[in-house]
Amino acid sequence: MSRKPLGSKPKRRASQSSKRRPLSKRLWQYYLRSAERLLKLFRILNITFLLGSTTVILILISLFTPLFSQAIVYLFTLLPLPAVPGAAMSSPPTAYVVLGGGLTNDNDNQIILNEYSLNRARTAASAYHDLPLPIVLSGAEAPWLGQWLIEHGIDGLISENASMNTCENARFTAKRIPLRHVYLITDRYHMARARRQFALNGINSTPINAPLPVNRDWMKPAQNLSHSRRAVYEVAAYLRDVIRPQGNCRQARDVTSQQLLTPRGNAVKTPNEQE
Fold this sequence. Notes:
Blueprint lengths: L7 H12 L3 H40 L3 H13 L7 H5 L5 E4 L3 E3 L5 E3 L1 H16 L4 E4 L3 H10 L6 E3 L5 H11 L4 E7 H13 L3 E7 L10 H23 L13 H5 L14
């Protein structure tokens, strides 16, 4: 004859006693458990807020130091480029491509290169004297870039005058002259976006960074902020190009060879020209 374990009755009594526990006591325990969970949640939110606010403050401070822009440039160097044809990867650079950086007016209201474009022209001249290669000037700034380079003893330039943005720089340069691998000259913040556009058009590129008008300096927060603004702009532009490419980038077939050769506004498209 089997017997029940001696400990079974106390367990049943304990179970019965828990059922008889007063409702107020059970509510009180439920309240304590809920309060404990809420306190844990508040602690997590507090830590998250402190970490988040500290991060925001540090980023805002870094904008006025060289750290922020240096970090952005480093991250840009880690970004992969679209694949280019094997011939473009294996061939050496055969030309310099200088991207225009804008124009301005002098004291006599004459159009001249702004500091961005001027630094790119200087960088191209320096590179040319080290290794003479054809120089392709891309953008509406091309006539002024060419004039500056000619005045500094460099001729035999190739101009693409029609492009109005980085996307068109790449498309129209590829149409203007067959290229596989080039030395690409622009500033270090613009470089990642420009190299991506040229790769999308089958052109491999080796970067040559032109300096910005002002240098980074720990003792000059305003100059550091200028670099930070440039870096933030290029991050936003790069993401735009990847997520939602700009709609104002014309296709190569939208411009004629004559338009590429003629300074902006002077080219006339002939209906008989075949694209």
